[in-house]
Protein: NADPH-dependent FMN reductase-like domain-containing protein
Organism: Daldinia eschscholtzii
Amino acid sequence: MASKSVAVITMSTRGTRAGPNVASFVRNIIEKPLAADGISVTDVDVVKFNLPVYNEKVAPIMVPEQASFQYEHSKAWSAEIIKYDGYVLVIPEYNYSMAGGTKNAIDYLLHEWKGKPVAIISYGGSGGANASEQAKGVLSNMGLKVVETRPQLPFAKPDLFSTIGTGKLGDHTVKAWEAEHLPSIQKVAEELKTLLLQPSA
């Protein structure tokens, strides 16, 4: 059986953001159980692709069968995403919704994502339940296989403004996540593994 690969994607785009630290926390939990079955894990950060609000002349559904991307940022994002067999999207919630940058990055592509398993892990002041539910609806309808478990990671109240201001996870937050959310993140790894390793139809 060929080895499989998973991208842990930091989907936040703010100048100051907790996303990379949340993604690192998640990766440290899921990497070992996935590696036990030969599944590699790679960090991907959407910020590095400098995606403007979608500006291609062609719709993603047309690429690559009927048209091609014009801009280098689109080509680079497409080439990165298509490399992986599955994804863990680490998404923020802003103002009770999925962030615009998250939706924009998803909307750039279709066939690169379609048919592949994806896990959604949200975070924010209250954990990101709204963003998680919205992302589930979008990705499911795009044809991705969304894993059932969707951890929602709230910042601890004593750390809230510090985390928002610096992007660093406070000790209270890390301890609370380790105590309360470790099992659900481990479950994500198992569910993702099951989808990745099931025989192709």
